[in-house]
Write a structure and sequence with these properties.
Elements (H helix, E strand, L loop, with lengths): L18 H23 L19 E2 L9 E2 L8 E6 L4 H15 L4 E6 L3 H11 L3 E7 L3 H5 L7 E5 L5 E6 L7 H10 L3
Parallel strand pairs: 3-4, 4-5
Antiparallel strand pairs: 1-2, 3-6, 6-7
C-alpha cells in the first residue's frame, strides 16, 4: 500500500504567496504617509519665476482704454521706474487691490495700467467705483501684450526701470502690507 502524501506547511505549498507579499500593502501605506508628512512639514514653493525679469519690454502700442487717459506704449517707460499693473474690470481681486494702488500712487509711485479683455463701459464703471491711479491706461483686447510680458493672469504688477527693463513681477493682488516692499522694489530699480 502506498502512503498518501500530505502537503507540508510553509513555502512549499503550491499557489501560496511569499510571506513578504503579505506585508507589501502595509509598507506601501507607510510610504504614502511618510510622503504626506514630508509635504506638510516642507511644502513646495508656489513662486513662479518669471522668464522676463531682466529683459526689455516687448514693442507694443495700446490704444487708450479710458477717457482722459492716454494709451500706453513700451516707449513710455523711460526716465524713472514705474509700475505696470495688469488688471480687468471683471476681476474681483483687482477691485480689492484698487485702494492699495491708490496708496502707492499717493506715496509717489507712477502707475501705468493695461486693461485686459475689457469693455469700455464696464472699465469706466470700475474706475468710477474704485478710483483711477493710472498715469496711462492701455487696452489689450486680445491679451497679446499681457502674454508677451509673461503675465498669466490678473492682477499682476511689474516694476519697470527707467530703461524699459522688467525688474520685478508681482503675481496676484498687492496687499496693504506689501506697499513698503513694492516701494522698495521701485527704489531698487533706480540703480
Amino acid at each position: 500500500m502506498s502512503e498518501a502524501k500530505t502537503p507540508r506547511a510553509g513555502n512549499d505549498a503550491p499557489n501560496q504567496a511569499p510571506r513578504w507579499a503579505l506585508w507589501l500593502p502595509l509598507a506601501l501605506f507607510g510610504c504614502f504617509v511618510a510622503l504626506v508628512v514630508v509635504g506638510l512639514v516642507r511644502p513646495a514653493s508656489h513662486d513662479v519665476p518669471s522668464q522676463m525679469i531682466g529683459k526689455q519690454l516687448p514693442k507694443f502700442a495700446l490704444p487708450a482704454a479710458a477717457e482722459g487717459k492716454p494709451g500706453l506704449a513700451n516707449t513710455d517707460f523711460t526716465g524713472k521706474p514705474r509700475l505696470l499693473n495688469i488688471f480687468a474690470s471683471w476681476c474681483i481681486p483687482c477691485g480689492v487691490e484698487a485702494p492699495v494702488l491708490a496708496e502707492l500712487a499717493r506715496q509717489g509711485a507712477e502707475i501705468d495700467g493695461i486693461a485686459i479683455r475689457d469693455h469700455r463701459e464696464e472699465l469706466a464703471a470700475f474706475l468710477a467705483r474704485n478710483g483711477n491711479p493710472y498715469t496711462r491706461l492701455g487696452s489689450d483686447d486680445v491679451s497679446a501684450v499681457q502674454l508677451a510680458i509673461g503675465s498669466s493672469g490678473v492682477p499682476e504688477t511689474f516694476v519697470i526701470d527707467g530703461h524699459g527693463v522688467i525688474r520685478y513681477q508681482h503675481i496676484g493682488d498687492i496687499r496693504p502690507e506689501e506697499v513698503p516692499m513694492m516701494l522698495a522694489r521701485l527704489k531698487e530699480a533706480e540703480q
